[in-house]
Design a protein that fits this description.
This is Polyisoprenoid-binding protein YceI. It is built from two helices and eleven strands, in the order αββββββαβββββ. The chain is mainly beta. The protein has a single domain, classed as Lipid/polyisoprenoid-binding, YceI-like (Lipocalin, Beta Barrel), CATH 2.40.128.110. An eight-stranded antiparallel β-barrel has the order 1-4-5-7-8-9-10-11.
Length: about 180
């Protein structure tokens, strides 16, 4: 086991200026389209020596979805997808944290989009701990997981004339996390 990972202990807050919550899906079955959520917050209690005592809570502002296309972002905010007027946040609340290898962690929790809550397990790589130039103790994690958007009720699509659909069901979620230890 990584001594640095197992020795972590404390309460942390995600640093949104140095973290990303992104997604990737296929458009028209031929190209990947990337997007992100620009407004989110998260807290974590980390106990590397007793991972079962660790927990994470994440809240994402659905209206902050950003795919670099105003029309597409507007459609994603509509009732066809996130319905941000009725459901302003996406949430993840962990139920279990396990150390699975020297530098790997698995976080299982309940992920809520709109009014659908499903279990989700996300594998993460521990990317290190450091003290930044301002004296903040930071930890980093990188993770990704594939999900089927239909599992969360995101079923809108359009058939293509040549066959297939406009938006793939499979969505890759990607996370780059920098968190700061709280005093």
């Amino acid at each position: 086991m990584n001594n640095e990972l197992t020795s972590l202990k404390g309460d942390y807050t995600i640093d949104p200026a140095h973290s990303t919550l992104e997604f990737v899906t296929r458009h028209a079955m031929i190209t990947k389209v990337r997007g992100s959520f620009d407004e989110f917050s998260a807290t974590a209690h980390v106990d590397g020596s007793q991972p079962s005592a660790s927990h994470v809570e994440v809240e994402i502002q659905a209206a902050s979805v950003n795919t670099r296309s105003a029309d597409r972002d507007g459609h994603l905010k509509s009732p066809d997808f996130f319905d941000v007027e009725k459901f302003p946040t996406l949430k993840f609340v962990s139920r279990e944290v396990k150390i699975t290898g020297d530098d790997t962690v698995e976080i299982t929790g309940d992920f809520t989009i709109k009014d659908v809550t499903k279990p989700l397990t996300i594998p993460f790589e521990f990317t290190g701990a450091a003290t930044d130039p301002f004296g903040n103790q930071r930890i980093g994690f990188s993770g990704q997981v594939d999900v089927n958007r239909k599992d969360w009720g995101l079923t809108w699509n359009a058939a293509l004339e040549a066959g297939g659909v406009l938006v793939s069901d499979k969505v890759k979620l990607e996370f780059e996390i920098s968190a700061i230890k709280q005093a």
